[in-house]
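Weekly structure sync, notes
Attendees: PL (lead), two postdocs, one rotation student
Agenda item 3: pending single-chain targets
PL asked that the sequence for the first pending target be pasted directly into the notes so everyone works from the same version. It is reproduced below exactly as submitted, 277 residues in total.
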Amino acid sequence: MVRCLIFFAHLLVLSSCNMQRQRDKKVSDLTPAEHIPANSPAYLFQNWEITDADHPMVKDVFSNNDSIYNFPGLVFLKDSNLVENPKGILRFGKFTLSEKKIRATFADGGTAAYLIKSLSPVEMQLQRSEKGAQTLLYLKADGKPFTEAKTNPFEPSLNSWRTRPKKPESKEEIKERVKQYVEFYSVFFDDHVQREATEINFQGYPCCFKWYHGGIYVQAEGKLDKKFISCFYSKPQAFEARQMLEDALAKKYTWDTSESNWIKQTAPVLKQIHDQL
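Predicted structure, written out during the meeting:
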């Protein structure tokens, strides 16, 4: 069991993120929990955080390597896409579901088989077989499944900006990566609006923005998120991307000053920033 380690990690997340305080309905298309039977397999299609594991692999455990955090989890999408560790080292794959059995094939050539031991709206136990090892995963979610994968912030095409390029990029290529970055956060905020959230846990996601009620700022070069830097070919190219965002934020945007929920207030501004890039 690694409960103590992961429990400590979650305490760290809660304490560091309490200070962190959306397009239209088509953006997230959540299925209201009250419309789904408690034992429905539809609850699989959520963003699941791994809270504990029996016989875990390294990727199943919270880690902090040089201020780059890994928070283990799994996201099952309605279109059969699978995302492993969306708040850590991303791994994309495809899966098939037959009753309680899940078979996954990942883009890196790896495979895994899962057996759903138990599933409720907010908790799940998965028995995973991978690389000759078996791990029992304990997971939690918020009980609001997605119905459309394309409106899910974890859909693979919305996360391609996080894959580090193998060679230096041109100015236009960096700009495109920056636009994808802003689009991800636009959908990410929209999703939280649909969930009627008042707080967002940013821990683990690459980000160079600083968020305030009524404002967005860019981190200084000396304090730029290391995980954000790792999305680019080199630190100078990450700094170039940072400058593009700072230049974009210097423009005028329409803020709803009457909106008390900072997430609802910020979501449409992110869309405006994306369109101005």
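Discussion points:
- Confidence is low (pLDDT under 50) at residues 2-33.
- The radius of gyration is 19 Å.
Action: rotation student to compare against the earlier draft before next sync.
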